[in-house]
Write a structure and sequence with these properties.
Elements lengths: L2 E2 L6 E2 L10 H40 L3 E5 H7 L8 E4 L5 E5 L2 E5 L4 E6 L1
Antiparallel strand pairs: 1-2, 3-7, 4-5, 5-6, 6-7
Bound molecules: zinc ion (ZN).
């Protein structure tokens, strides 16, 4: 039975379950994984942070924990509806999307209801 190094794909021998040739390959592999993860997660994180900033700025203007805003306005501000930190469906079947300490739902075809925790 033989294995290959997860980093350089060279044939490995030795103990079962060994994943890398040596500590250099192990470090290279983990650095590559860290970079690959960072590329994706940093982009998505920045979208969610931007979404939170947009909701927070409107909240600071209105000074109320429950407000309505148009979908067009949010889109114009750069809000990306695809990215949120979670979602739930309430007993009336309405979906709430979470952006950290905010949640919102489509109140009508153009109105978004936003609630701050
Ligand atoms: Zn290797």
């Amino acid at each position: 039975m033989s294995w290959i190094c997860a980093n350089c794909q060279k044939k490995l021998s030795g103990r079962k379950g060994k994943r890398f040739c040596d500590s250099i390959c192990k470090n290279e592999y983990h650095n590559k994984m860290r970079l690959a993860n960072a590329e994706v997660t940093q982009t998505i994180d920045s979208f969610m942070h931007r979404n939170r900033t947009i909701l927070f700025e409107i909240y600071l203007e209105k000074r109320i924990k429950k407000y309505f805003v148009t979908k067009a306005y949010l889109t114009k501000k750069g809000f990306k509806f695809k990215y949120h930190t979670g979602s739930t469906v309430n007993s009336q079947g309405k979906t709430y999307h979470y952006i950290y300490d905010f949640r919102y739902m489509e109140f009508s075809s153009d109105q978004i209801m936003v609630l701050k925790n």
